[in-house]
Amino acid sequence: MPSEQYKSPSRTERDPLGEFPVPADAYYGIQTARAVENFPISGLRAPADLILATVLIKKAAAQANAGLKRLDARIADAIAAASDEIASGALRDQFVVDVYQAGAGTSHNMNTNEVLANRAGELLGALRGEYRVVHPNDHVNMGQSTNDVFPTATRLALLMMHGALAESTRALATAFARKAEAFRGVLKVGRTHLQDAVPITLGQEFGGYAACLDRSADELDHAAVGLQELNLGSTAVGTGLNAGDDYTAAAIHNLSSYTRLALKPAANRFRVTQSMGDVVTYSGAMRRLAVEAGKIASDLRLLSMGPRAGIAEITLPAVQPGSSIMPGKVNPSIPEMVNQVCYQVHGCDVTISAAAEAGQLELNVMMPVIAWNALHMSRILREAMNALRTRCVNGIEADADRCRELLDRSTATATALSPYIGYAATAEIAKESVKTGTPIRDIVLERGLMDQQKLDRVLSAENMTRPGIAGADKP
After folding, report:
1. Measured by CB atoms within 10 angstroms of the end CB, which terminus of the chain is less buried, N or C?
2. What CATH class has 4-142?
3. Cis? peptide before 47, omega within 30° of 0
4. DSSP structure string for 441-452
5. What is d(CA 144, CA 59) in angstroms, rounded to the nearest whole number?
6. Rounded to whole angstroms, how far apart are CA atoms 383 and 270?
7. Longest CA pairwise span in the chain (Å)
8. 237 CB contacts (<8 Å, ≥6 apart)?
9. Cβ contacts of residue 435 below 8 Å, gap of 6+?
């Protein structure tokens, strides 16, 4: 029985299962109404980018069919006009199907078909729910199947979002690179295993962060290329029944024209219909970005910990009070947010991988959950990278005195002695320094192992931050 929401004013529509009420003012129709009834799962709806991609596909298909004289030009124009309205933001409240729906995305596809049919029919003088002028299946879905529309929409949406994600990642890398230049003279102790290690500059540390992010952006670009192959025109199983190569070429050409993306027909339509592997690859590239960004965010939290009882080598911008009980406390709020986003991305990637493997024979019916997670990943990563750059990295300041203080207290500088006096002797000196608190320099001089002038060159922290044997470049 229909739920309470359909006991308000309604119209009755009919499909192969019989009659069903639809809200009288709705632009969607009976199949969408059934999906709303069947899937009251999460309250999550189709992402805006997926809606945009789907209506662009419908416009491209209508214009391709009109060009091939399969669809009346007036109907094609009305479908295109309705698509343009939705692409501009109209009628988004009419996309009401839950993210967790029947397999393959049939409900999402029919939601789109019905909204476009009713709006296009309205533009041609018909009433909502009267499909004599524009029919959801016969006209809006002409030459298509959910099985080629939904994977094409997923790929197209990810590609339309890709530029902003890659740009936000490279902008963050640039912000770290600027800080690397600003901090290039700030000497500090390096750390491995969370223990003191040989000297490094803060600039070198931040330069590494910039390079990690740049490489992640490169991986995103590389993975995006695989998404450019579309199976639009493959229809149900990849054969292209009721479509044809002329239609496929025209529809994909139209999509390329609308989006300015380098789209092309799939080299093997069966592969792209059967497999979501290209989305898995792109998800993997987003996961890599999350791994790199998450590690960097954690490092910023460690380096800024304090301000009196921690490392405190850098200061992060204060963006909000950090405690409801401790006045004056400021937390690394932006890196903490980034960490949480990255953990969510890992979870999305696991879901995508499992769902992609669950495809069977000619189709992967788990596409709706794959699409939602992939698009969610892209969106939250993009916004997290932007926030990390503008609300945190751009305002980071170095405490050079604190960096030097911790460096001078470290015994790891003894490492530079190993090429001259050997590993064992160096280890013994470091051990004595830790035990007695005597500086490394004083122990070496007391034991007569090296004259002061040479020792100054060998134990120069600046020399230790460059390749080669410290002190060996001069007599």
Report:
1. N
2. mainly alpha
3. no
4. HHHHHHTTSS-H
5. 12
6. 35
7. 101
8. 147, 270, 273, 362, 363
9. none
Radius of gyration (C-alpha) of the chain in whole angstroms? 30
Set 8, 42, 257, 323: catalytic member: 323
Taking the whole predicted model, whether its pTM rises above 0.85 is answered as yes
CA 389 to chain centre: 16
DSSP state of 426: H
CA–CA separation, 206 and 174 (whole Å): 11
- Domain with residues 411-464, CATH architecture: Orthogonal Bundle (1.10)
pLDDT in tens, 317-366: 999 888 888 888 889 999 999 999 999 999 999 999 999 999 999 999 99
**Which helix (H) or strand (E) element contains residue 230?**
strand 229-230
Which three-class secondary structure state does DSSP give residue 24?
Answer: coil
Arch. (CATH architecture) of 148-227+272-401: Up-down Bundle (1.20)
Going by C-alpha positions, the residue among 224, 182, 223, 226 that lies closest to residue 205 is: 182
Does the active-site annotation cover 323?
A: yes
| Count of other CB atoms within 10 angstroms of residue 66 | 20
What letters, b where the CB count within 10 A reaches 16 and e where it falls short, cover 116-130?
Answer: bbbbbbbbeebebbb
Give one DSSP letter per residue of 287-342, joined into a string. Answer: HHHHHHHHHHHHHHHHHT--SSSS--SEEPPP-SB--SSSTT-B--HHHHHHHHHH
**What residue type is 421 in one-letter code?**
I
Compute the distance between CA of residue 245 and CA of residue 92 in angstroms, rounded to an integer: 32
List C-alpha distances in Å: 409 to 97, 199, 402.
Answer: 62, 12, 11
Our CA angle for 380, 384, 389, nearest 5°, is: 155
| Rounded Cα–Cα distance for residues 307 and 322 (Å) | 13
Name the residue type at position 79.
Answer: I
Q: List the domain boundaries for the chain.
A: 4-142, 148-227+272-401, 411-464
For residue range 373-388, list pLDDT tens digits in order: 999 999 999 999 999 9
